[in-house]
Amino acid sequence: MLVFMVACGGESTDPVESGTYEGTIQEVNAEESEIYVNISDEQTLELYFIDETELVKDTTAVPFDSLATGQKVRVEVEKVGQRLDPLRVEILK
Questions:
Q1: What are the chain's domains?
Q2: What pLDDT was estimated at residue 81?
């Protein structure tokens, strides 16, 4: 994730610390293996999947194309320099 502000559909992405966050997928960009996740009314995370990103639903690994706009997710991210790397993305019910 880029830690500086980036325009996305009229909203901006926001820097956060390493940790676990819950939110709703605002946008999925399959070509870039990227998702935008609203974690509050004022905060949106821009997350680029890395090789180590684990994507699961009901404790089972699922492919990237399982993600869709409007889904609730729990993301575990690690701040690495000026970006956030998603370590785990869990699709919630």
A1: 7-91 (2.40.50.320)
A2: 87
49-52 contacts at long range (C-beta below 8 A, 24 or more positions apart): 49/86, 49/89, 50/85, 50/86, 52/85, 52/87
Residue 80 CB partners (closer than 8 Å, separation 6+): none
Distance of CA 35 to the CA centre of its chain: 5
Q: For residue range 9-48, list pLDDT tens digits in order.
A: 444 566 789 999 999 999 999 999 999 999 998 899 999 9
Single-letter code of the amino acid located at 3:
V
As a dihedral over the C-alpha atoms of residue 70, residue 88, residue 59, residue 91, rounded to 10 degrees, the angle is 0
Tokens 């404790």 locate to 59
